[in-house]
Protein backbone atom coordinates (compact mmCIF):
# COMPACT_ATOMS: atom_id res chain seq x y z
CA UNK A 1 0.00 0.00 0.00
CA UNK A 2 1.33 3.38 -0.98
CA UNK A 3 1.61 5.55 2.11
CA UNK A 4 3.06 8.60 0.35
CA UNK A 5 0.98 11.72 0.90
CA UNK A 6 0.21 14.17 -1.90
CA UNK A 7 1.74 17.69 -1.54
CA UNK A 8 -0.84 20.24 -0.62
CA UNK A 9 -1.59 22.59 -3.52
CA UNK A 10 -0.39 25.68 -1.63
CA UNK A 11 2.90 24.03 -0.75
CA UNK A 12 3.53 23.01 -4.38
CA UNK A 13 2.73 26.51 -5.66
CA UNK A 14 5.03 28.08 -3.07
CA UNK A 15 7.86 25.74 -4.01
CA UNK A 16 7.48 26.52 -7.69
CA UNK A 17 7.41 30.23 -6.96
CA UNK A 18 10.64 29.91 -4.99
CA UNK A 19 12.34 27.95 -7.79
CA UNK A 20 11.27 30.54 -10.39
CA UNK A 21 12.46 33.38 -8.19
CA UNK A 22 15.85 31.75 -7.70
CA UNK A 23 16.16 31.09 -11.44
CA UNK A 24 15.17 34.66 -12.24
CA UNK A 25 17.64 35.94 -9.69
CA UNK A 26 20.47 33.90 -11.17
CA UNK A 27 19.54 34.99 -14.70
CA UNK A 28 19.22 38.60 -13.65
CA UNK A 29 22.55 38.47 -11.87
CA UNK A 30 24.25 37.05 -14.96
CA UNK A 31 22.66 39.68 -17.16
CA UNK A 32 23.65 42.40 -14.74
CA UNK A 33 27.21 41.13 -14.67
CA UNK A 34 27.28 41.11 -18.50
CA UNK A 35 25.98 44.68 -18.65
CA UNK A 36 28.32 46.07 -16.04
CA UNK A 37 31.57 44.27 -16.87
CA UNK A 38 34.25 46.10 -18.78
CA UNK A 39 35.15 45.18 -22.38
CA UNK A 40 37.39 42.15 -22.84
CA UNK A 41 40.84 42.33 -24.40
CA UNK A 42 39.45 40.89 -27.64
CA UNK A 43 36.69 43.52 -27.71
CA UNK A 44 39.20 46.32 -27.12
CA UNK A 45 41.39 45.05 -29.95
CA UNK A 46 38.40 44.86 -32.30
CA UNK A 47 37.40 48.41 -31.34
CA UNK A 48 40.93 49.63 -32.03
CA UNK A 49 40.94 47.98 -35.47
CA UNK A 50 37.59 49.55 -36.34
CA UNK A 51 38.78 52.99 -35.27
CA UNK A 52 41.94 52.70 -37.38
CA UNK A 53 39.95 51.57 -40.43
CA UNK A 54 37.68 54.63 -40.17
CA UNK A 55 40.36 57.28 -39.69
CA UNK A 56 40.50 58.14 -43.41
CA UNK A 57 36.86 59.23 -43.05
CA UNK A 58 36.64 60.50 -39.44
CA UNK A 59 39.91 62.41 -39.10
CA UNK A 60 40.07 66.00 -40.40
CA UNK A 61 42.03 66.22 -43.65
CA UNK A 62 44.57 68.47 -41.96
CA UNK A 63 45.31 65.73 -39.44
CA UNK A 64 45.93 63.14 -42.16
CA UNK A 65 47.97 65.65 -44.19
CA UNK A 66 49.65 68.09 -41.76
CA UNK A 67 50.67 71.55 -42.94
CA UNK A 68 54.34 70.50 -42.74
CA UNK A 69 56.11 67.15 -42.57
CA UNK A 70 59.73 66.62 -41.44
CA UNK A 71 62.31 64.74 -43.49
CA UNK A 72 66.05 64.18 -43.73
CA UNK A 73 67.66 66.67 -46.12
CA UNK A 74 69.91 65.44 -48.94
CA UNK A 75 72.67 67.70 -47.62
CA UNK A 76 72.20 66.50 -44.03
CA UNK A 77 70.10 67.79 -41.17
CA UNK A 78 66.34 68.06 -40.99
CA UNK A 79 64.00 69.99 -43.24
CA UNK A 80 60.22 70.27 -43.58
CA UNK A 81 58.03 69.78 -46.63
CA UNK A 82 55.16 72.27 -46.88
CA UNK A 83 51.65 71.39 -47.94
CA UNK A 84 50.34 73.24 -50.99
CA UNK A 85 46.82 71.84 -50.98
CA UNK A 86 44.45 68.94 -50.34
CA UNK A 87 42.01 67.52 -52.87
CA UNK A 88 38.32 67.44 -51.85
CA UNK A 89 37.82 64.35 -54.02
CA UNK A 90 37.89 60.81 -52.61
CA UNK A 91 37.27 58.70 -55.74
CA UNK A 92 39.55 55.70 -56.23
CA UNK A 93 40.47 56.58 -59.83
CA UNK A 94 43.37 59.02 -59.28
CA UNK A 95 45.85 56.32 -60.30
CA UNK A 96 46.96 54.71 -63.56
CA UNK A 97 44.26 52.53 -65.22
CA UNK A 98 45.87 49.21 -64.31
CA UNK A 99 45.91 50.21 -60.65
CA UNK A 100 42.30 51.48 -60.75
CA UNK A 101 41.11 47.95 -61.50
CA UNK A 102 43.19 46.49 -58.69
CA UNK A 103 41.87 49.01 -56.18
CA UNK A 104 38.28 48.32 -57.14
CA UNK A 105 38.79 44.57 -56.81
CA UNK A 106 40.30 45.13 -53.37
CA UNK A 107 37.26 47.11 -52.20
CA UNK A 108 38.72 50.61 -52.25
CA UNK A 109 36.71 52.88 -49.96
CA UNK A 110 38.43 56.13 -50.84
CA UNK A 111 41.62 57.79 -52.07
CA UNK A 112 42.78 61.03 -50.47
CA UNK A 113 45.52 63.24 -51.97
CA UNK A 114 47.62 66.22 -50.96
CA UNK A 115 50.60 67.90 -52.62
CA UNK A 116 53.74 69.06 -50.82
CA UNK A 117 56.88 70.94 -51.83
CA UNK A 118 60.35 70.39 -50.41
CA UNK A 119 62.20 72.99 -48.35
CA UNK A 120 64.34 74.08 -51.32
CA UNK A 121 61.13 74.54 -53.35
CA UNK A 122 62.39 72.52 -56.27
CA UNK A 123 60.53 69.21 -55.93
CA UNK A 124 56.82 68.47 -55.68
CA UNK A 125 55.28 65.33 -54.24
CA UNK A 126 51.68 64.19 -54.13
CA UNK A 127 50.87 61.84 -51.25
CA UNK A 128 47.88 59.54 -51.66
CA UNK A 129 46.12 57.60 -48.90
CA UNK A 130 44.10 54.60 -50.11
CA UNK A 131 41.61 53.05 -47.68
CA UNK A 132 40.85 49.37 -48.37
CA UNK A 133 38.40 46.90 -46.81
CA UNK A 134 41.01 45.22 -44.63
CA UNK A 135 44.70 44.39 -44.37
CA UNK A 136 44.69 41.35 -46.74
CA UNK A 137 43.02 43.48 -49.43
CA UNK A 138 45.60 46.22 -48.90
CA UNK A 139 48.42 43.72 -49.33
CA UNK A 140 46.89 42.45 -52.59
CA UNK A 141 46.30 45.97 -53.92
CA UNK A 142 49.89 46.98 -53.21
CA UNK A 143 51.11 44.52 -55.87
CA UNK A 144 49.49 46.68 -58.59
CA UNK A 145 51.95 49.54 -57.98
CA UNK A 146 55.60 49.89 -58.89
CA UNK A 147 57.91 49.14 -55.95
CA UNK A 148 61.12 49.99 -57.79
CA UNK A 149 60.91 53.76 -57.41
CA UNK A 150 59.34 54.27 -60.83
CA UNK A 151 56.21 56.43 -60.96
CA UNK A 152 54.18 54.17 -63.28
CA UNK A 153 51.92 52.42 -62.54
CA UNK A 154 51.20 54.72 -59.66
CA UNK A 155 49.48 57.78 -58.30
CA UNK A 156 48.45 60.74 -60.42
CA UNK A 157 49.94 64.07 -59.28
CA UNK A 158 47.65 66.70 -57.81
CA UNK A 159 48.13 70.15 -59.38
CA UNK A 160 46.78 73.45 -58.06
CA UNK A 161 46.17 76.30 -60.49
CA UNK A 162 47.89 79.54 -59.60
CA UNK A 163 50.50 77.87 -57.39
CA UNK A 164 53.98 76.43 -57.91
CA UNK A 165 52.22 73.10 -58.47
CA UNK A 166 50.16 74.25 -61.47
CA UNK A 167 52.35 72.29 -63.93
CA UNK A 168 52.41 69.08 -61.89
CA UNK A 169 50.90 66.75 -64.50
CA UNK A 170 51.31 62.98 -65.08
CA UNK A 171 54.03 63.63 -67.68
CA UNK A 172 56.15 65.33 -65.02
CA UNK A 173 56.32 62.29 -62.72
CA UNK A 174 59.87 61.09 -62.12
CA UNK A 175 59.62 58.92 -59.00
CA UNK A 176 57.04 57.01 -57.00
CA UNK A 177 56.63 54.81 -53.96
CA UNK A 178 54.08 52.58 -52.23
CA UNK A 179 53.86 51.60 -48.57
CA UNK A 180 51.28 49.49 -46.73
CA UNK A 181 50.15 49.06 -43.13
CA UNK A 182 46.82 47.75 -41.87
CA UNK A 183 43.98 48.54 -44.32
CA UNK A 184 45.93 51.43 -45.89
CA UNK A 185 48.26 52.10 -48.78
CA UNK A 186 50.19 55.35 -48.93
CA UNK A 187 51.44 56.25 -52.40
CA UNK A 188 53.68 59.05 -53.61
CA UNK A 189 54.49 60.55 -56.97
CA UNK A 190 57.19 63.19 -57.35
CA UNK A 191 58.48 65.60 -59.99
CA UNK A 192 60.24 68.90 -60.39
CA UNK A 193 58.61 72.29 -59.96
CA UNK A 194 59.70 73.57 -63.38
CA UNK A 195 57.40 71.04 -65.04
CA UNK A 196 60.09 69.26 -67.07
CA UNK A 197 59.00 65.85 -68.37
CA UNK A 198 60.78 62.88 -66.89
CA UNK A 199 62.46 62.03 -70.22
CA UNK A 200 63.83 65.58 -70.54
CA UNK A 201 65.91 65.48 -67.36
CA UNK A 202 69.59 65.83 -68.27
CA UNK A 203 70.75 63.90 -65.22
CA UNK A 204 68.82 61.44 -63.14
CA UNK A 205 69.11 62.27 -59.45
CA UNK A 206 66.81 59.91 -57.57
CA UNK A 207 68.16 61.17 -54.25
CA UNK A 208 66.29 64.47 -54.63
CA UNK A 209 63.01 62.55 -54.48
CA UNK A 210 63.94 60.38 -51.49
CA UNK A 211 62.16 62.66 -49.04
CA UNK A 212 58.83 61.71 -50.65
CA UNK A 213 59.01 58.18 -49.25
CA UNK A 214 60.02 59.50 -45.85
CA UNK A 215 57.06 61.84 -45.50
CA UNK A 216 54.71 59.12 -46.77
CA UNK A 217 55.91 56.79 -44.03
CA UNK A 218 55.14 59.49 -41.47
CA UNK A 219 51.59 59.81 -42.83
CA UNK A 220 51.15 56.02 -42.85
CA UNK A 221 52.47 55.56 -39.30
CA UNK A 222 50.12 58.19 -37.88
CA UNK A 223 47.15 56.76 -39.77
CA UNK A 224 47.68 53.06 -39.06
CA UNK A 225 49.00 52.93 -35.48
CA UNK A 226 46.25 51.72 -33.09
CA UNK A 227 45.64 53.53 -29.82
CA UNK A 228 43.99 52.42 -26.60
CA UNK A 229 40.19 52.61 -26.96
CA UNK A 230 38.22 55.00 -24.76
CA UNK A 231 34.87 53.23 -24.64
CA UNK A 232 33.21 56.22 -22.98
CA UNK A 233 33.99 58.46 -25.95
CA UNK A 234 31.47 58.83 -28.77
CA UNK A 235 34.00 57.96 -31.47
CA UNK A 236 34.58 54.45 -30.09
CA UNK A 237 32.42 51.33 -30.51
CA UNK A 238 33.56 48.79 -27.90
Explain this structure.
This protein has 238 residues and is α+β, with helices and mostly antiparallel strands. It has a domain at 61-224. The chain has 6 helices and 6 strands, in the order H-H-H-E-E-H-E-E-H-E-E-H. It has helices spanning 9-36, 41-58, 61-64, 97-105, 135-142, 210-224; strands at 68-72, 78-86, 110-117, 123-131, 175-181, 184-192. The protein has a 6-stranded antiparallel beta sheet, sandwiched between helices. A hairpin with a 2-residue loop joins strand 5 (175-181) and strand 6 (184-192). The longest helix is centred in the N-terminal third of the chain and has 28 residues, at 9-36. The protein is globular. This is PknH-like extracellular domain-containing protein. Keywords: Signal. Residues 1-23 form the signal peptide.
Residue runs with pLDDT of under 50 for 5 or more positions: 1-35
Mean pLDDT: 85
Topology, number of strands:
6
> Ends: how far apart?
65 Å
Count, helices: 6
Percentage of helical residues?
A: 25-40%
Strand order of the largest sheet: 1-2-3-4-6-5
Order of helices and strands: HHHEEHEEHEEH
What's the main sheet like? 6 strands, antiparallel
Global shape: globular
Radius of gyration from CA coordinates: 29 Å
Structural class of the secondary elements?
A: alpha+beta
Sheet-strand content, in percent, reads: 15-25%
